[in-house]
Amino acid sequence: MANELTVNCSLEYESEDGPTFPVEPAEAVKITLATDKPLFTIQTVSTSEEAIELGDISSRAICLLENLDTTNYIEIKVGTGGAIFAKLFPKGSAAGINFCLLSLGSGAQSPFAIANSGDCKMAISVFAL
Predict the structure, then answer these.
(1) Fewer Cβ close by (within 10 Å): the C or N end of the chain?
(2) At 94, is the secondary structure helix, strand, or coil?
């Protein structure tokens, strides 16, 4: 099928004192896109908050953000001066995940980013729904 995005995800959790979750990946989700023109770009994120480059997106979209920096983290906010809802850790860091998948809509149509202590490169992929 044309203009189709497939999203796969898996999660593994082990604990000595608690339950262990299955490692089987969840079933892939297939999403039909509104356009065959996704946006792929790399944005430099500074230590002053700035709008995330979303191209011509004016409706609902799926957005993947990835921190390409190996030293500094990036915080993602719902809007300018808004609450931080994601932290993209440095690439290859043992501290955590360096990417997030967002569903952009009325509540998060204009997300902002800010680097913690030095400019970072962030890969952006946007798919209109």
Answers:
(1) N
(2) coil
Return the CA Rg of the chain. Answer: 16
Read off the CATH number of the domain in which 82 is found.
2.60.120
- 22 in a structural domain: no
Residue 74 CB-density burial (10 A; 0-12 exposed, 13-18 middle, 19+ buried): buried
Q: List, run by run, the mean pLDDT of 10-residue segments along the chain (129 residues).
A: 78 74 71 86 97 84 94 93 92 86 73 95 93
Closest C-alpha to 64, from 102, 121, 110, 10: 102
What is the chain's length?
A: 129
Strand partners, 41: 124
Count of structural domains, the chain: 1
pTM: 0.83
The whole-angstrom separation of Cα 73 and Cα 89 is 5
Amino acid 106: pLDDT: 56
Residue 1 within any structural domain of the chain: no
